[in-house]
Amino acid sequence: PGLRLIIPVVDNLTKVSMRIVTMPIQSQGIITRDNVSVDIAAVAYFRVVDARKSVVVIENVDSAINQIAQTTLRNVVGQHSLDEALSDTAVINGSIRQILDTTTLEWGVEVTLVELKDIQLPDTMKRAMAREAEAEREKRAKIIAAEGEARAAAALGEASDTMMAHPLALQLRNLQTLLELGVEKNTTVVFPAPLMSAIGEVAAFLSRETAAAAPLTQPV
């Protein structure tokens, strides 16, 4: 910045932008650590911090950064598995930026940010992942169904214990079921002899309870 003396023929004036530059890193085929072929594109952001170095130290700094960004992207992603490339993009972005920055600072350029922009999987891998996701959903559905059956079995066990401890409750439940069937189907229900005997026992029990409670409700 400022005034400079330019000697014609001897000196050459070159304008250098100090603003942040966006550079797309074109998609390229990369083999991950677990031998899966993926196509990955990225984008890098950099700015010139030393105008003299960016002109004197290297020729065509933009092209140089693009080339080294492609090779660094391929090397870093190749050290990770597919799952890591899909889930740990922040780690990969940071590694690429750090490696690039180490080199480009010598050229008077600082890489401020690198982002993986697009990861394309082979069709066979997409189908395999879809099958895996479907299998996982089926597995979860079976687990939920099994848990429901276990809870239902536990509830039935508790109900069975209650019925065994209170025979009259079991008979009342049988009577209720028969009455519900008769109402729903609009049919005549024939009560078996054992159940009629149980009904008599229930009636006698209710009569006793009513008689025992009657003195308590009489006015003084």
UniProtKB/TrEMBL annotation:
InterPro entries: Band-7_stomatin-like, Band_7, Band_7/SPFH_dom_sf, Stomatin_HflK_fam. It comes from Rhodococcus opacus M213. This is Band 7 domain-containing protein. Belongs to the band 7/mec-2 family. SUPFAM superfamilies: Band 7/SPFH domain. One of its GO terms (cellular component) is plasma membrane. Residues 1-133 form the Band domain. Pfam families: Band_7 (PF01145).
